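Sequence in, structure out.
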Amino acid sequence: MNLQLLKQDDISQVARFHSLYIPHSTFAQLGIPFLKTLYHSLLKSRYGFVYTYWEGKEMQGFIAGATDSQRLLRSLFLGHFLFFLGISLRALFRHPRLLSSLFQTFQYSRKVSLPQTKAELLFIAVNPESRRRGIGSKLILRSLEELKRRGINGVKVSVERNDQKTINLLQKMHFCQEKKFSFYQRERVLLSCQIPE
């Protein structure tokens, strides 16, 4: 099957894929070592999951999600505090403007708070050459199945407001817009979906 849960051997490839196709994210700006630790933590955490989509031996996309994004991020940062501190200080030395983004990252969970929805689709990326073939839809549907299997009945996702293709895809999949907010000096939209039983 083309869709599979993240395997230990694929963490480096997912980290490179994230860096390449989500380059403006603060996490990508912290570098590949940070991303490898992030995805290793997602693989091991009871709160997280990552699915990858393959065609032959080439990864074409991935999605990362959490049953409780706030708990996941808290456990990630507390569990690797010294590592993240070192990575952050090195990145800040190279890119001083990153300080604002790091500060905003700690404000994120407050900005996307929905009273009854703790689960979140954190990252999704599809190789641009493979887009418009349903890979994103398959990744999202598999994530919804995973959340349902874990007893979760609702999920949220934030998207850049100018990414109308992704917003349209999510709305076709029964996600509804909850609110607009500013994050990393970009306008974003928060959408949510009730997972059918």
